């Protein structure tokens, strides 16, 4: 499935672009460090792995290849073995398959993602890896923004994926899917086509195969790039607002908030503080929606004697004598 070893000084344009992006992310590493690359066998992750091999060697960085078997498709174990064989033939000496059990809690995509990241975190800890490389591209970023718009999400969600988050690195966020396909062709790599990427039951697939092409056709070319660029701009705004809210929180008791003070703050800051307060009171991670926050915010900005609110995790919020009281669940 894989041709001869990669040319270390490739002049093919897609390969050069991807290697340049990878090189920038590796610049924080020192000789002897270990990094992981998550590879599904698709064009994006395969092109990423191919670029990481020569770049990590140049810096004397240890590269470990990991493929996650979600066990959601028939013969998924055989596909995982094919990916492992590809990585070995490419020249990654340390490779492994990690099988995960996907607990379906909030949709197949989200549940699989949660299981995948947990597995990658565990492998990174085992190898004491400094970075975990993921193959998300500019197209993935645009799809995330469009999905966020459809959900009516805020700036943080619309800012898409960050290039670097903790140990996770996504060097291909400015690289298009067509470029990763070209890089695979340039290096004689045959990518796997995941059947899930053609299954229209998934919203992301419908965005990829239907919504974005129609937008390109009706509005004009460049929509994908524009959405990804918007994500970058919104991330700067979201980061600034988060920083402001965090600075405010250091002076507040999140279980007993002065409504008069909160009312002096911009709504974008106030709602961030309220969300943090609800979670601090014991709401489960990811359980607080925009509707929950809006209802609590109305106790401040639209007070008319409303009663107490009961939120996820048994958190109770009520306004008492001009103060917002948040109490954790008590069995």
Structural features, described:
The protein is α/β, with parallel strands linked by helices. 51% of the residues lie in helices and 13% in strands. The protein has helices at 13-26, 43-58, 76-90, 108-127, 138-151, 155-158, 177-186, 203-219, 223-249, 259-263, 267-280, 290-301; strands spanning 34-38, 62-69, 94-99, 131-133, 164-165, 168-169, 256-258, 309-311, 315-320, 323-327. Helix 2 links the parallel strand 1 (34-38) and strand 2 (62-69). The radius of gyration is 23 Å and the shape is elongated.
Short description:
The protein is α/β, with parallel strands linked by helices.
Keywords:
about 325 residues; alpha/beta; six-stranded mixed beta sheet; four-stranded antiparallel beta sheet; 12 helices; about 15% strand; disordered N terminus
Question: Strands of the largest sheet, in order across it?
Answer: 3-2-1-4-6-5
Task: Please report which band the strand proportion falls in: under 5%, 5-15%, 15-25%, 25-35%, 35-45% or over 45%.
Answer: 5-15%
Order of helices and strands: HEHEHEHEHHEEHHHEHHHEEE
Alpha carbon gyration radius = 23 Å
Mass-distribution shape: elongated
The averaged pLDDT comes out at 91
Helix-residue proportion: 40-55%
Number of helices: 12
Helix/strand layout:
Elements: H1 13-26, E1 34-38, H2 43-58, E2 62-69, H3 76-90, E3 94-99, H4 108-127, E4 131-133, H5 138-151, H6 155-158, E5 164-165, E6 168-169, H7 177-186, H8 203-219, H9 223-249, E7 256-258, H10 259-263, H11 267-280, H12 290-301, E8 309-311, E9 315-320, E10 323-327
Parallel strand pairs: 1-2, 1-4, 2-3, 4-6
Antiparallel strand pairs: 5-6, 7-10, 8-9, 9-10
Helix pairs in contact: 1-2, 1-7, 2-7, 5-8, 5-9, 9-11, 11-12
């Amino acid at each position: 499935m894989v041709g001869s070893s990669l040319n270390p000084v490739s002049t093919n344009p897609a390969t050069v672009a991807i290697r340049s992006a990878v090189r920038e992310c590796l610049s924080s590493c020192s000789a002897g460090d270990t990094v992981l690359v998550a590879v599904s066998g698709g064009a994006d992750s395969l092109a990423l792995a191919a670029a990481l091999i020569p770049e990590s060697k140049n810096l004397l960085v240890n590269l470990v290849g990991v493929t996650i078997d979600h066990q959601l498709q028939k013969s998924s174990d055989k596909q995982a073995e094919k990916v492992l064989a590809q990585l070995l033939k490419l020249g990654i000496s340390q490779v492994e398959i990690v099988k995960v059990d996907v607990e379906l809690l909030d949709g197949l995509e989200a549940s699989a993602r949660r299981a995948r990241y947990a597995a990658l975190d565990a492998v990174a800890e085992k190898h004491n890896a400094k970075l975990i490389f993921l193959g998300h591209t500019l197209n993935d970023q645009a799809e995330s923004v469009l999905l966020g718009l459809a959900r009516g999400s805020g700036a943080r969600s619309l800012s898409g994926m960050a290039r670097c988050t903790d140990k996770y690195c996504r060097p291909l966020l400015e690289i298009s899917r067509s470029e990763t396909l070209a890089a695979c062709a340039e290096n004689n790599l045959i990518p796997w086509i995941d059947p899930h990427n053609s299954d229209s039951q998934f919203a992301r697939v419908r965005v990829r195969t239907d919504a974005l092409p129609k937008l390109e056709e009706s509005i004009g070319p460049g929509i994908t790039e524009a959405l990804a660029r918007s994500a970058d701009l919104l991330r700067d705004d979201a980061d600034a607002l988060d920083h402001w809210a965090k600075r405010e929180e250091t002076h507040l008791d999140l279980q007993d908030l002065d409504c008069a003070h909160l009312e002096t703050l911009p709504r974008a800051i106030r709602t961030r503080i309220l969300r943090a307060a609800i979670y601090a009171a014991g709401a489960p991670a990811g359980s607080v929606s925009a509707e929950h926050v809006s209802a609590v915010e109305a106790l401040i900005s639209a007070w008319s004697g409303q009663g107490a609110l009961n939120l996820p995790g048994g958190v109770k919020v009520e306004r008492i004598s001009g103060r917002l009281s948040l109490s954790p669940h008590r069995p």
